[in-house]
């Protein structure tokens, strides 16, 4: 049995020269749990949860339009679950 947890923090930044649109300023936590037997070649199974607490952060915010600005926003990846099955040849 193995487990790993990681946390990454990204500080706030300005998305334009005026400084009125900010991006980043979030922290994400990932978790990985695995069940592996070194005496067996197959199977190894791992469960990976990315963005464990489902935090939403802004990676990009592009503003277009002068009179009525429109924000084209790209967010962080939402929580996702992956199952990895591995083995040795």
Structure description:
Helices cover 0% and strands 61% of the residues. It is built from no helices and 6 strands. The strands form 2 sheets. A 4-stranded antiparallel sheet has the order 1-2-3-6, with no helix packed on it. The protein has a two-stranded antiparallel ribbon with strand order 4-5. It is elongated. The model has no long low-confidence stretch (mean pLDDT 90).
The termini sit apart by: 21 Å
Could you tell me the mean pLDDT?
A: 90
Strand content: over 45%
What share of residues is helical?
under 10%
Total number of beta strands:
6
> Globular, elongated, flat, extended or rod-shaped: what is the shape?
elongated
List the helices and strands and how they pair.
Blueprint: E1 2-14, E2 22-35, E3 44-50, E4 58-64, E5 70-75, E6 80-86
Antiparallel strand pairs: 1-2, 2-3, 3-6, 4-5
């Amino acid at each position: 049995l193995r487990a790993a947890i990681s946390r990454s923090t990204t500080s706030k930044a300005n998305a334009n020269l005026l400084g009125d649109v900010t991006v980043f300023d979030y922290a994400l936590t990932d978790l990985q749990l695995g069940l592996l037997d070194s005496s067996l070649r197959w199977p190894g199974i791992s469960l990976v949860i990315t963005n464990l607490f489902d935090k939403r952060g802004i990676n990009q915010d592009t503003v277009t339009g002068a009179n009525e600005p429109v924000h084209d926003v790209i967010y962080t990846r939402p929580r996702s679950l992956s199952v990895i099955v591995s083995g040795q040849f």
